[in-house]
Amino acid sequence: MRNWLLSIVLLLSLSLSGCGYNTLQSTDEQIKAGWSEVLNQYQRRADLVPNLVNVVKGYAVHEKEVLTQVTEARARVGSIQATPELINDEQAFARFQQAQAQMSSALSRLLAVSERYPQLKADGVFRDLQAQLEGTENRITVARNRYIKAVQEYNVTVRSFPSNLTAMMFGFKTKPNFSVENEKEISAAPRVDFGAPAK
Hints:
The structure is a single chain. This protein is mostly helical. It has a single domain, classed as LemA-like domain (de novo design (two linked rop proteins)), CATH 1.20.1440. Helices cover 76% and strands 0% of the residues. The protein is built from eight helices and no strands. Helix 2 (21-59) runs antiparallel to helix 3.
């Protein structure tokens, strides 16, 4: 009887290892790590916004509408609870993505304003913030791409046979990803070229 139970436990263990359960766990953890990095980089960008707005405000006092748009976009981004559960809710993920796209757009408009203010473009603090923002936008793109790949691998596992049976049994569902139609818009770094105009 004891050998029979041991055989069943061994058989179940072998069947679980071949059913994709471990792969689902592993890829789910990759997604969580990738998502944390995406959030980290978006937070870095949001942290740069107040300083950038203050520097621009000092030179471009007549650009109140643009400054307000950037401040409101940052507030919308901050109002979204970016918890790990957000990646399991397609609607919440879409709202997060939309808020980040609005932030990118507002920052682009803010940086475009500097073209009208040569003294602002020459300000060392502004140039430093602009360089930090450019680097952060690049890190956002890299982190988002890693997340996209992790979600793709996980979703393929959830949908493939026989691991899809395991996924159904244990409640694993596909996760939302950054949408293709918005990817170009939200991955485009704000225009940050403050060199001399082309001749």
